[in-house]
Fold this protein.
Amino acid sequence: MLNQRVLVVDDEPDITALVAYHLAKAGYRVSTAANGRDALNAASEERPDVVVLDVMLPGVGGYDVLSELRRRPETRDVGVILLTARRDEPDRIQGLSLGADDYLTKPFSPAELVLRVQALLRRLTAPAVSSGSVVVVGRLAIDHAAHRVTVDGREITLTATEYRLLDTLVERRGRVQARSQLLEIVLEAQPDIQTRTIDMHVQRLRTKLGDLGELIETVRGFGYRFAATDRAGKAK
């Protein structure tokens, strides 16, 4: 943990100091930024493992920072937890659709934030389930050793959360997975909250998979299932 870096980005000094204190107390190396431009510079130079990012920043806003982090090769895999004072669902959905891994609404418990950071880092650094194994489902391949996903041999860039979600659905293909199950497995979240979070990660994952996204089937009122067979006539 001592080598894991967390960048805290917020324009409110009191919040920044509070979050940085609790993360440092938990053993993380913490740096801070008060605006979007400084955050992007710090992320490129310091290569943090996780960015705790406030949505409402002066100048370059939090959503723009998130989009740029995901665009740049050197930061596209960094974990991102959004902080937002907005409780409306569309605002949370926007962040998730841009590639955020998690979010917290203000006011929040610093202890809960530390737990969210720990859970995200476990997902980011989780060892391969079976080193060297490659799971092939038709045109889709998941290389566990490299944490790499390809479609027709072309690599698909996924966040750690998207990768874990896809891997879970493929591993259990043909079986319906409840949103609550996916929350516990993929996000390590309580099963009775934030089910909409899973919906947004699925939506983003489908988009990245292109026409193969249709293999992630919605089971109304329950959850999702990865099709046992490729309806395009490809192999299992």
